[in-house]
């Protein structure tokens, strides 16, 4: 029983039940507050009509996520009852129907959010996009994965994976929408091959719309076990915000004096000490030097891989064969888990 609707109001019933039917979700309507407690815990989503929010709150049901008060334009009493119930929100109907449709679209999705991993190059040409693609390819063998292209000046993650011709929504289309984005809608809408979905641009003129990203990333982690974001090195406060949203941030850098110097400046701007780590590429300096200069721990070292450039040119992705990159991403994802 995915949705429990507690109300005696015909207007609330007529507003909510059709939305459940449109989402293909079963709903149980209960007009007796006392009887509602029997299925209070089991429902994926609990919608309490404003007309019964007071009586239901008086029963002191156990606190749980996914409770919303729905009904007429809210007043002070609706908010007081919502606090008593521990509700997540108060939704005005019918004005809030679009938001409620998005919430219903997520019913039955993952019980816990996926992990959000950001990858950024400490200097140009460090191989951040390649690592992001490799992480996504590896995890997609095991479950739903979303690779987000957050670098407008990058090559395009879809091109490296040979997915540029697959149908699906791109950044341009999402930027033209508004409101809550459902996890299922995003997962099914982006270009996808098996368990791997990608979100990038469709043309040469690219601009990362940060408000759209704020809607996309929460939907992505609700519908995927792993979301990998290929971040741009430059982008101002927007990139800093995106990096801060990541559970883990991997900074790719060559172990060279110029590379580490540039990486140190990037790390200072991001301010992510404690949740960021270095992925070191070959160079003349050691891990201790890299950690001393940047202030970040080395979490992986990736040697040069024979045939990698040819595999990317052919759209096979970085994990077309075995090599040091495959071993590195395996260990990185195991540590993140």
From TrEMBL:
Domain Rv3660c-like CheY-like N-terminal residues, every copy: 7-112
Organism of derivation: Nocardioides flavus (ex Wang et al. 2016)
Signal sequence segment: none
NCBIfam families the UniProt entry points to: CpaE_hom_Actino
SUPFAM superfamilies: P-loop containing nucleoside triphosphate hydrolases
Listed transmembrane segments: none
InterPro entries per the UniProt record, alphabetical: P-loop_NTPase (IPR027417), ParA/MinD_ATPase (IPR050625), Rv3660c (IPR022521), Rv3660c_N (IPR059050)
Annotated protein name in UniProt: Rv3660c-like CheY-like N-terminal domain-containing protein
Lineage of producing organism: Bacteria, Bacillati, Actinomycetota, Actinomycetes, Propionibacteriales
